[in-house]
Design a protein that fits this description.
By secondary structure, this protein is an alpha/beta fold. It is built from twelve helices and 20 strands. A hairpin with a 5-residue loop joins strand 4 and strand 5. The structure holds S-adenosyl-L-homocysteine. S-adenosyl-L-homocysteine binds next to helix 8 and helix 10.
C-alpha cells in the first residue's frame, strides 16, 4: 500500500539538493525542492531535475528540512522487512555496550540512517522520539519491529521536544506499548542509578556521557567536585575513588534523585549542593579552596549559531575558574554538548581559559562520542558532544 503511494507521488529536487545526498548528507531543504509532493507527510520518491530517481525520503511539508533520505534505492519497499533490517543493523552495532551497561542508545537518528528517530534502551524498556512528520507515519512499523527485535516490557514516546512543533506535530509524552515505570534502575560500568523516562531530561538520563564517566573516574582522587551534576551520574562514579565528592546542581529535583542514587550505591561521601555553578566556582576561588578532581558538564550554552560568542564566554568562565581551583596534579574533565560549538572552537576556548588561568595544563585526552552515538563525518548534526581531560602540572 505504502509502496503504491510512494510511486504515485514524488518530489523533484534541484541540483543543489541532489548534491547534498551525493555528499553524504540526508537532508534536502525546502528551498531545494522544485516540485513538492502533493501527498501528506510520509515517504516519497525523489527525482533530480532530469527525472532520474534518486531514492526514497521522508517528506515533511511544514518543515525547513523537507526531505530526509531513507534509502537511495528508489524501489525500497519501506515495509516491515525493510524496517526490521534497518533497525536490526543499528541495534546490533551496540552489542558490545551490553557487557557493561543496560542503558544505551539503540538508534541515533541520521547517524543510523533512521532520520529523525531516536530510540534509547533503559534495561527492559525503550524510550523513542519521533521528530519529523515523515517518521511519524511509520510509527506502527517502528513499534512493531522494536517489540520484535528487543522484546521490551514497554515503549514510551518522549515526543515532548520543541522540534516537533516545526513539523506540525503535537508535543506530548505517550505510552506506545506495554507499561513503562516512572523510574528505572540502570547499571553503567558498575554504578547504579535511577533514570526518569517520563519526565527526566532527554529520554530519562544522559546516556552519551557513559564512558566519559569512567574516564573521569579513572583519574579521580581526593576532593572532587561534579558541577552540573543532574542526578549525580558523574559523582557516583567519582565517589568510588575520591575521598569526598560535591554533586552540584541548580535543580533541587535532580539533586533529590542524586541523593537516592548515592544511597543506591552505598556511598556516604557524596555531598549535595544546590547552587548556581557560576556563583559557586567564583566563591570557591575567593575562599582559596582547592579540588583534586573537577567535572564540568554544563547544559548546551550555544543553542543557536548566533549565541556562540556569548556561549564561549560562559564556557571560558567556568573552565578558567575550575582550572584555578585545581590542586597540583589535579584533573579537570570538561565537556560541551553544544552542536554549534565545534571541536576546534572548544579547544580554542580551553586554550584561552588555560592562558588566563596562569596554570600549566596538560591535555591528556580529547574525547568524542561513544559507540552508541555515532557522529557521521558528512553529517555534522550527528556530532555535538566533545570533551577533554586536563591535568594541572604546576
Ligand atoms: N552531568 C550530568 C548531566 C548534566 S545536564 C550527567 O552526566 O548526567 C546539565 C545540568 O546542569 C542540569 O541538571 C541542570 O539542572 C544543571 N544546570 C543548568 N544551569 C546550571 C547552573 N547555572 N548551575 C548549576 N547547574 C546548572
Amino acid at each position: 500500500m505504502r509502496t503504491q503511494s510512494i510511486a504515485a507521488d514524488s518530489a523533484t529536487v534541484s541540483a543543489n539538493g541532489a548534491r547534498r545526498w551525493e555528499q553524504g548528507h540526508p537532508w534536502i531543504y525546502r528551498s531545494d525542492v522544485l516540485k513538492r509532493p502533493v501527498s501528506p507527510p510520509g515517504a516519497v520518491l525523489v527525482h533530480n531535475e532530469r527525472g532520474r530517481p534518486l531514492g526514497v525520503a521522508l517528506w515533511s511539508p511544514m518543515s525547513e528540512i523537507a526531505l530526509r533520505l531513507l534509502d537511495s534505492n528508489p524501489d525500497a519497499p519501506l515495509d516491515l522487512t525493510w524496517w526490521r533490517d534497518r533497525l536490526a543493523t543499528a541495534i546490533t552495532r551496540r552489542a558490545p555496550i551490553g557487557e557493561h551497561a543496560n542503558a544505551y542508545r539503540l538508534v541515533h537518528g541520521e547517524a543510523d540512517m533512521c532520520p529523525s528517530l531516536v530510540c534509547d534502551r533503559y534495561d527492559r524498556w525503550l524510550v523513542v522520539q519521533l521528530m519529523s512528520a515523515g517518521i511519524e507515519q511509520f510509527r506502527d512499523e517502528i513499534v512493531t519491529v522494536l517489540m520484535e527485535l528487543t522484546e521490551p516490557l514497554g515503549i514510551l514516546a518522549r515526543n515532548d521536544v520543541p522540534l516537533r512543533a516545526k513539523e506540525g506535530l503535537a508535543t506530548e509524552v505517550e505510552l506506545l506499548a506495554g507499561e513503562v515505570p516512572r523510574e528505572i534502575e540502570i547499571i553503567e560500568h558498575g554504578a547504579r542509578y535511577l533514570a526518569a523516562p517520563w519526565d527526566g531530561q532527554k529520554t530519562g538520563a544522559f546516556l552519551d556521557q557513559r564512558e566519559n564517566r569512567v574516564a573521569a573516574a579513572a583519574r579521580a582522587r581526593g576532593r572532587a567536585l561534579d558541577c552540573f551534576s543532574y542526578h549525580g551520574s558523574f559523582a557516583i562514579h567519582l565517589a568510588a575513588r575520591a575521598q569526598h565528592v560535591i554533586a552540584l546542581d541548580v535543580s533541587a529535583e535532580a539533586l533529590g534523585r542524586a541523593a537516592r542514587n548515592s544511597a543506591l550505591n552505598g556511598f556516604t561521601n557524596i555531598e549535595l549542593v544546590e547552587a548556581n555553578a557560576f556563583e559557586f566556582l567564583k566563591a570557591q576561588q575567593r575562599a582559596r579552596e582547592r579540588y583534586d578532581t573537577i567535572v564540568l558538564d554544563p547544559p548546551a550554552f550555544a543553542k543557536t549559531r548566533a549565541s556562540v560568542p556569548s556561549a564561549i564566554r560562559g564556557y571560558k568562565e567556568i573552565n578558567l575558574r575550575a582550572m584555578r581551583l585545581l590542586t597540583s596534579g589535579g584533573t579537570l574533565f570538561t565537556a560541551s554538548c553544544s552542536f554549534h560549538l565545534s571541536m576546534p572552537l572548544f579547544l580554542d576556548m580551553l586554550r584561552a581559559a588555560a592562558a588566563d588561568s596562569g596554570r600549566r595544563l596538560a591535555l591528556r585526552e580529547v574525547r568524542g562520542q561513544p559507540l552508541d552515538h555515532p557522529g557521521i563525518v558528512t553529517v555534522p548534526e550527528t556530532s555535538y558532544l566533545k570533551s577533554a581531560v586536563l591535568e594541572a602540572l604546576d
